[in-house]
Amino acid sequence: MRRCFCLVFALLLLSMSSFAENTEILLTFTGDCTLGSEERLRAKSFSFDSYITQHGYAYPFEKVQSLLAHDDVTVINLESVLYAYERNRLPKTYNFRGPLDFVNILGAGSVELAYLGNNHTGDYGWQGLASTIRTLEEAGLAWFGVPYPKLSTWTYEKNSVKVGFTGCYIGQWGRDPQRLRDTFEELKQQGCAFIVAVMHGGTEYALRQDGNQERFARFLVDQGADLVVGHHPHVVQGVERLGSVNILYSLGNFSFGGNAELRATQTMLAQVRLSFNGQGQYLGQQLNLIPAHPSGTLEYNNYQPVLVGGEAAQAIIDLVGTQSNYPLNPYQEGIGAMQDFLPAAQTIDP
């Protein structure tokens, strides 16, 4: 009996030590990243592929390493496939593909997690998607958002605190909302204290989120999302607070190899700092909107996003503010537009 008690006590101490101190987790999100080219442009000197051949794998995210290299998880929307062949290309207006070795762009860029629930990871059929997943996994990189055979999720753990990631393309949600509901139950059963939901949808180049995006976001919140991050419109859109949840409707294009000419010149990164108490319970989040341009020059696309400051930065925050449901805090030089701390629905004493 004494030996049994000692074992139980030791396990209790081990469990308590896992949550010995408060935990903070810093997440960084970018918008649309097309790490490849169209077939007809691949050999051109101005194509994304040619830029990587000339400048190396680190090139696309080189100018934002002050952010990406110092967080816990960087999440990009990977809106292209990693596939060695031109075959199996679907009859679409735009098909985006990068060779297998372009997976090294993510590692060199301090990117840990790729969201695949968009309208371009199927550009080369299931063969292209399977190649993308296999290539990411062989490089030790995580992914989520693929709908079959079930909707995939991913979980990050730090100091025994678990953060879950789920999401899908808006068309997939419309066809089968139950599949998305199931992912929330899965993440809750895994013990996730916080759930990030990513949504890919909206009207391309629309300067304001539409009703479908808003309904999708509210559905995600109703299922238990603590943060909603969106992309697909290729331009920045509004931010909302719905209770204790931040909703970002569109971050815009980031390193976007799909356009040799810039169709949008404003983007932003979102950094969200999550706070948990010593027992691993979620306390709240703080959102920082960090203005950027998707290219180092606005005369053409050089596929290398750069942070911006001064009036250019404030102009981006002002634009986002016109579409948001609360007044945004202004841009602070060298920091970003840091918003007020948003506490969890039920505040728990740390």
Describe this entry's structure for a reader.
This protein has 9 helices and 18 strands. It is of the alpha/beta class and 350 residues long. Strands 1, 2, 5, 6, 13, 14, 15, 16, 17 and 18 form a 10-stranded mixed sheet that branches. A 6-stranded mixed sheet has the order 7-8-9-10-12-11. The chain is globular.
Number of domains: 1
Helix segment count? 9
- The topology string of helices and strands comes to HEHHEEEHEHEEEHHEHEEEEEEEHEE
Q: How many extended strands? A: 18
- Main sheet makeup: 10 strands, mixed
* Assigned CATH architecture: 4-Layer Sandwich
Low-confidence stretches: 1-19
Q: What's the shape?
A: globular
Enter the CATH topology name: Purple Acid Phosphatase, chain A, domain 2
Q: Which class in CATH terms?
A: Alpha Beta
CATH superfamily heading: Metallo-dependent phosphatases
- Cα separation of the termini: 35 Å
Mean pLDDT across residues? 93
| C-alpha Rg (nearest Å) | 20 Å
User: What fraction, in percent, of the residue positions are helical?
Assistant: 25-40%
The fraction of residues in strands falls at: 25-35%
Can you lay out the helices and strands and say which pair or pack?
Elements lengths: L1 H17 L4 E12 L13 H8 L9 H4 L4 E6 L2 E2 L14 E2 L5 H5 L4 E3 L9 H14 L3 E3 L9 E5 L2 E9 H6 L1 H13 L4 E7 L10 H13 L3 E5 L7 E4 L2 E4 L4 E4 L10 E10 L5 E12 L12 E2 L2 H12 L15 E2 L3 E2 L7
Parallel strand pairs: 1-2, 1-13, 2-5, 3-4, 5-6, 8-9, 9-10, 10-12
Antiparallel strand pairs: 1-14, 7-8, 11-12, 14-15, 15-16, 15-17, 15-18
